[in-house]
Amino acid sequence: MDPVSPLEQTLHAARALVLADLVAGDVAQADVVSLVEDSVVQRRWWVEQWPEGAGYVAGLVAQDVQDALLERYGRWPLCPVCGSGDPHALDVEPELGPDPHWVCHKAGVKVASIGSLAHATGGAASS
Question: d(Cα 15, Cα 68) in Å, to the nearest integer?
Fold first, then answer.
């Protein structure tokens, strides 16, 4: 069996992190998982063109899925920090950079790293 390439390792890791956040929010239905797969396919091409951007893939996949969910279903992930006011989604920071995390701009706080929403929301932990 051939070893898994660094590119594939990066893509698998990004997929796993975003899926963990979807599971934490109890929104990991098959059609939503397909959105993750679509993003991973697109980001594979992107990182093949710009290998130095491999460290940014998890944040980009999270943003892709967030955008696709907004178009189809609504905001995700909803902020677990702000208990009052209109529900609002968290944002990915940095938009293009390493160590992506979910932030609430309204409260001005980092909520969780990508892949760790379960710790912030009390959702299901990934295994």
Answer: 15
* Residue 123: predicted pLDDT: 61
* Angstrom distance (rounded) from CA 16 to CA 83: 28
Rounded to the nearest 5°, which phi and psi values hold at 106?
Answer: -65, -45
DSSP string, 31-95: HHHHHHHHHHHHHHHHHHH-GGGGGGHHHHHHHHHHHHHHHHT---SBPSS--SSS--B-EEEST
Band (97; pLDDT cuts 50, 70, 90): very high
Predicted TM-score (pTM) of this structure: 0.91
